Amino acid sequence: MKVLLVGNYEADGQWSMNRFCTMLLRGLREAGVETVVVRPEVILGGGNKWLGYVDKFFLFWFTLRRAAKGGWVVHVVDQGNGVYPVLTRICALTCHDLLAVRAARGEFAGQRTGWSGRIFQRMILHGLRRARGIVSVSGATQRDVKRLVGECEVIANGVEDFWGPVEAEVCAKEYLLHVGGGQWYKNRAGVVRVFIDLRVRTAHALKLVLVGPKLDEGLAAEVRQAGLEAEVIVLQAVTDKTLRALYSMARVFIFPSLEEGFGWPILEAQACGCPVVTTAREPMTETGGEAAIYAREGEWTKGVIEVLEMDETRRAALVAAGMENARRYSVKKMVAAYIEFYRRRQ
Question: Are residues 214 and 139 in the same domain?
Fold first, then answer.
């Protein structure tokens, strides 16, 4: 068996998808499977979206057609490249979520997609329907795929052994942590407002550490108005080593997402021994298992306070359960499932 992984265009900065591709590449090679990655080169695009489309969906077509010859199992690792099944024979495609497709269809109130985006998402949906086999990363994503595309199987993402507790000379434990981009469904507004609510209404004097882009001006203004500007720390482009330490030393990891495809940071935090407070809906409940504190929208502050006020015995039990839950999502298990999936589609 030879596997050709189709990766993402570097200029798009799809950090999590690049990471998934690298993890799968390493895992397949360790399992003895000949595996290579091919991805669109940045030739014309750079900072121009439209020229980037030329790189990805016209120039790359020639590269992909050549690379796919010779009996390779072709696997597109990101549903955002769902156009590729239209261009060539795709044996497998991983669907991490269909949030952009659903937004373009008007399924999320208040989320508007421009005309070009709607056309592009329709093209992706058409391509997904042409793939020979689709894998979804969670039961929640599987339901979306079945409704909009067709049949698919679930292979949950793995968590690398790298993620685990680290000891620091000074163990802060006096901050809340959130990891995520600025997309609407990541709900950074919810994170900031929970923090403000916590600081205004309680005696818990924690800071807030946000790993991701700078706060937009509206949220930054809310922080200034609350007099908490010095208490909110935004860290951009941190290394995995730093992120591991941040998880390990945080008092609580808060992840109040409105929608997700899987919720990788939940498992990373659990693996590093950090209690998790997240949304009481799938896929968060699926990923976090019985080892997280779940709260409905508007009740996240209550969930954070519950963790902050736990006695040491209960907190230790929650941490241990989280680490055990994270171990269920091994990379070897994920890779073995993909190999079996490929064999059935050769």
Answer: no
Residues 337 and 294 in one domain: no
Q: Are residues 34 and 122 in the same domain?
A: yes
Q: Give the pLDDT confidence of 114-126 residue by residue, as tens digits.
A: 999 999 999 999 9
Q: What is the pLDDT of residues 87-101, one digit of tens each?
A: 677 889 999 999 999
Q: Is residue 180 part of a domain?
A: yes
Are both 96 and 228 inside the same structural domain? no
Domain of 224, in residue numbers: 175-327
Whole-model pTM over 0.85:
yes
Q: Which own/partner contact pairs does 241-246 have at CB distance under 8 Å and 24+ positions apart?
A: 243/179, 243/211, 243/268, 244/162, 244/163, 244/164, 244/166, 244/268, 244/272, 245/166, 245/168, 246/177, 246/209, 246/211
Q: What total of structural domains would you count in the chain?
A: 2
Band the pLDDT of 223: cuts 50, 70, 90. Answer: very high
Confidence of residue 21 (pLDDT cuts 50, 70, 90): very high
pLDDT for the residue 173: 66
> Is there a cis peptide before residue 283, judged by omega within 30 degrees of 0?
yes
- Residue 293 β-bridge partners: 277
pLDDT of residue 96: 96
Pick the closest to residue 309 from 275, 266, 259, 344 (CA basis): 275
- Are residues 134 and 216 both part of a single domain? no
Residue 16 shares a structural domain with residue 144? yes
